[in-house]
Design brief:
The protein has 13 helices and 7 strands. It has a 7-stranded antiparallel beta sheet, covered by helices on one side. Helices cover 50% and strands 14% of the residues. It is α+β, with helices and mostly antiparallel strands. The protein has 3 domains: 123 residues, Roll (Structural Genomics Hypothetical 15.5 Kd Protein In mrcA-pckA Intergenic Region, Chain A); 102 residues; 85 residues, Serine Threonine Protein Phosphatase 5, Tetratricopeptide repeat, CATH 1.25.40. The longest helix is centred in the middle third of the chain and has 21 residues.
Length: 347
C-alpha cells in the first residue's frame, strides 16, 4: 500500500484476523497507516485474550521463520522490528494475508488479512476493534506443571535457548553457543538414558516439536569447529529417537565437510537407497556432492528433487534456491532465467 500524501486525509487499514485452523473465530481491527505492526500485536493480545508475555513476530510472506519477511517484537532479536514497521510503508496488498506468530515454543499462529482502507475519523482512538466473533479455545494447562523435577529444570533452561535459535536458525553458532549446545544435547541424552526412550516424545511436545530441528542443526556447526566426533555422535544417537533418514543425511554432510570422500559417498548411497523418492533426502545428498566438488552429480540430484517436490511449494522454493545459486556460481545465468520462468509458468 502506498503512503497517503500529506494533503490527503490520513488513511486506516482494516485487518481481519483469525487463529490458524479456526476460521470461524475472528476479529476485525482498524489501525491508522502511521501505526505499526507492534500496535497490531497489542490489539490482538487484548482482543483475543492471549496469556503471558512471549516473543512474537510477523511474517509478511505468510511463511513462519522466513527471515526475509520477518518483523519481531522488542526482545525477539530480529533485524527488522515490529515497532518501527509503519503499516502505510509496508508493501501490503488488499486481499492478501500474512502470519502472526505468538510464543515461539507453543507457536500460536494467526492469519492476518488486509481487507480494505478507510479514512481516519476525528476524535476516534485507534487501534479499535470493529468485530468480535467467537473466543479462542481454552488452552490446556501447561504440560510442565505435571512434569517430574528433572524435566522441569531441563525445559526451563532449554526453552530460552530454543527461542533464540529459532530466530537465528539461518546463522551459524559462535564458539560459546556451540559449547552451550553441546552441554544441552548431552543433558537430553542423559534424560533419555535415565527416563527411557519414550521421554523423547514428551520432550518434543514440550518444545513445540522444534527439538529435532534444533538437534539436526548441530552437526554442521560442530564440524566447522573441528568437533567431528561430536557431530557423528549426535547423528548416531538421535537417529534412534527421531527421523533416522534426516540424521543419516547429516552424517553424509559431515563426512563430505571433512573431505572423507569414500565414506561420504558410501553414506550418500545408503541414504538414497533408503529413501530414493524423498526430495529432502535427495537435496541433502546433492549438498554433500557439492562439498565434495562434484557439481555434476549435485545438479542432477537437485533437478530430480525439484521434479519430485511437485506439490510442496516450500520445499520447491528451497530446492530452487540451491539449484539457481549453483548455476549462478558457474555463470549459467540463461539457465537460471529459464528455470525461474518455468517455475512462474507453473504458478
Amino acid at each position: 500500500m502506498k503512503r497517503a500524501k500529506s494533503r490527503e486525509p490520513l488513511r486506516t487499514l482494516l485487518l481481519r484476523i483469525f487463529p490458524e485452523g479456526f476460521p470461524t473465530i475472528w476479529r476485525v481491527v482498524e489501525l491508522k497507516e502511521t501505526q505499526t505492526l507492534q500496535d497490531v500485536h497489542k490489539v490482538m493480545v487484548q482482543s483475543f485474550g492471549l496469556k503471558g508475555k512471549h516473543l512474537y513476530a510477523f511474517y509478511l510472506s505468510g511463511r513462519r521463520w522466513d527471515s526475509e519477511s520477518e518483523y519481531g517484537g522488542p526482545s525477539a532479536g530480529t533485524p527488522k522490528k515490529a515497532m518501527k514497521a509503519e503499516l502505510g510503508k509496508l508493501k501490503l496488498e488488499q486481499g492478501k494475508t500474512f502470519l502472526y506468530l505468538y510464543n515461539f515454543v507453543r507457536e500460536r499462529r494467526f492469519v492476518v488479512e488486509y481487507t480494505q482502507d478507510e479514512v481516519v475519523v476525528p476524535k476516534v482512538s485507534y487501534p479499535r476493534v470493529l468485530e468480535t466473533v467467537g473466543d479462542l479455545p481454552e488452552e490446556a494447562p501447561p504440560l510442565e506443571e505435571s512434569l517430574p523435577e528433572p524435566l522441569k529444570r531441563w525445559i526451563v533452561k532449554f526453552r530460552p535457548v530454543l527461542e533464540t535459535w529459532a530466530l537465528n536458525r539461518s546463522k551459524p553458532r559462535g564458539p560459546r553457543e556451540v559449547q552451550e549446545a553441546v552441554h544441552l544435547v548431552r543433558e537430553v541424552e542423559d534424560l533419555l538414558k535415565k527416563r527411557g526412550p519414550e521421554t523423547w516424545t514428551l520432550m518434543e511436545e514440550l518444545t513445540g516439536m522444534l527439538l529435532v530441528d534444533w538437534v539436526l542443526s548441530l552437526p554442521q556447526d560442530l564440524v566447522k569447529r573441528d568437533m567431528a566426533e561430536e557431530a557423528f555422535r549426535v547423528c548416531d544417537t538421535f537417529a534412534a529417537h527421531a527421523d533416522a533418514d534426516r540424521f543419516l543425511t547429516e552424517k553424509a554432510l559431515v563426512y563430505a565437510h571433512m573431505g572423507r570422500k569414500e565414506r561420504a559417498l558410501q553414506q550418500i548411497r545408503e541414504n538414497l537407497t533408503r529413501a530414493p523418492e524423498n526430495p529432502r533426502i535427495i537435496t541433502a545428498a546433492a549438498e554433500a556432492f557439492l562439498k565434495l566438488e562434484e557439481a555434476g552429480h549435485a545438479e542432477r540430484l537437485l533437478r530430480k528433487a525439484l521434479d519430485l517436490a511437485v506439490d510442496d511449494i516450500n520445499e520447491r522454493e528451497r530446492i530452487l534456491a540451491k539449484l539457481t545459486a549453483m548455476l549462478e556460481e558457474n555463470e549459467r545465468t540463461e539457465e537460471v532465467t529459464e528455470l525461474i520462468r518455468s517455475e512462474l509458468d507453473r504458478g
